[in-house]
Amino acid sequence: MKILITGGAGFIGSHVVRHFIHKYPQYNIINLDLLTYAGNLENIKDIEDAPNYTFVKGDIQDIDQMRGLFTKYEIDAVIHLAAESHVDRSISDPFVFIKTNVLGTATLLQVAKEKWQDNMEGKLFYHVSTDEVYGSLEDTGLFYEDTAYDPRSPYSASKASSDHFVRAWHHTYGLPVVLSNCSNNYGANQFPEKLIPLFINNIINEKPLPVYGKGINVRDWLYVEDHASAIDVIFHKGRNGETYNIGGHNEWRNIDLIKLLIKLTDAKLGRPEGSSEKLITYVTDRAGHDLRYAIDASKLKDELGWVPSLQFEEGLGKTIDWYLENKDWLANVISGDYQKYYENQYGSAIG
Ligand code: NAD
Ligand code: TYD
């Protein structure tokens, strides 16, 4: 099987590529990535010489390039992760999200349909999406696969739109598809714009920790390698046309998570317990900040037998260790453009 994985130089994509390369030496993996600010070949350096691996730099919006790639590599299946992924960036620059996430996904769907239409047998378009398409929960309730879509940020609206297009190509053209909607991921190689790696980096460097609003928003955290294993299971066993929610049953209020992160990181740095709590700085809330996300993943468990493997403290500990052991990676990604982003996003609030 020849599998096109898009966005494989990004955070989750790099873990998915590594997982498939090691577990399925009989598959050929073609990793297509534009290497935007979020894409980094260092994330997959350890597997770049694997015999079943090819990297292609390219843009999912470029239909001619995608046609050429499908033909050249005789693609049988797609695992589509390439996207703009950060909510705060979608608030300041929504159009790049619409272009990449909506038009880019529609481009890939169209090319897959063109190339596979004579024989769809054995073909699969797997679309990786987010629980944020379901909107925002109050204190109770969970997101189910049939929860009505109610996206509220430009990011989640663009992902919701792409999900709809995937289903449209399935129903209209018979394209074999499967979708998954996952909760917040954490782990090694996550770009330090998202909460956990941003805060680990700032604790290490004794910089302010910018907590949006009152810190009472809730997220459901899943270790990235558990997401990769769920994608593996859904890719191989998921039913055509179905959607599967993926989550960790692991809800945390931001401020509680931040205090745990401080405790674990201070301990690893040999600082007195809780000493970095003085860095907590409450800043203006994110516009339209979704209050709570929480996933019901029982369909995935009952139908396909997947459950997360890691406890949260263990996963956080491994994640902190990775950032402490990979200071060069961190130094590299926070040089240049990151400084401009950081200044725009946080400059006036925390200096
Ligand atoms: P990321 O921002 O770390 O990586 C995205 C990758 O896509 C980068 O390598 C980037 O270079 C590439 N890319 C961007 N535009 C491209 C284009 N036009 N053509 C080709 N490549 C392009 O994102 P991530 O956090 O790894 O998320 C991956 C996927 O998983 C996304 O679709 C996201 O919506 C979804 N998801 C993420 C989370 C999360 O917590 N991070 C949770 C659920 C779902
Ligand atoms: P984030 O990692 O951006 O993921 P998402 O918004 O997609 O869930 O943010 C996780 C939570 O942390 C969210 O409620 C926003 C909050 N947050 C802060 O309080 N401060 C920050 O600097 C960031 C980046 C996020």
Radius of gyration: 20 Å
Q: Identify every distinct bound molecule in the structure, by name, code or SMILES.
A: nicotinamide-adenine-dinucleotide, thymidine-5'-diphosphate
CATH architecture of the domain at 2-186 and 221-246: 3-Layer(aba) Sandwich
CATH class of the domain at 2-186 and 221-246: Alpha Beta
What strand order characterises the main sheet? 3-2-1-4-5-6-10
> Could you name the CATH homologous superfamily of the domain at 2-186 and 221-246?
NAD(P)-binding Rossmann-like Domain
Q: Any idea of the CATH topology of the domain at 2-186 and 221-246?
A: Rossmann fold
Our measurement of the CA-to-CA distance between the termini, rounded to an integer number of angstroms, reads 51 Å
Please explain how this structure is put together.
- The chain is of the alpha/beta class.
- It has a domain at 2-186 and 221-246: 3-Layer(aba) Sandwich (Rossmann fold).
- Helix content is 44%, strand content 16%.
- It has 12 helices and 12 strands.
- It has helices spanning 11-23, 63-73, 87-92, 94-116, 154-173, 195-204, 224-237, 254-269, 298-304, 312-325, 327-333, 337-350, and strands at 2-6, 28-33, 53-57, 77-80, 124-130, 177-182, 184-186, 209-212, 218-223, 243-246, 251-253, 280-283.
- The strands form 3 sheets. A 7-stranded parallel sheet has the order 3-2-1-4-5-6-10, sandwiched between helices. It has a 3-stranded mixed sheet with strand order 7-9-11.
- Helix 4 packs parallel to helix 5 and helix 8 packs across helix 10.
- The longest helix has 23 residues, at 94-116.
- The model has no long low-confidence stretch (mean pLDDT 97).
- Bound molecules: nicotinamide-adenine-dinucleotide (NAD) and thymidine-5'-diphosphate (TYD).
- The site of nicotinamide-adenine-dinucleotide (NAD) has 29 residues, from helix 1, helix 4, strand 5 and strand 7.
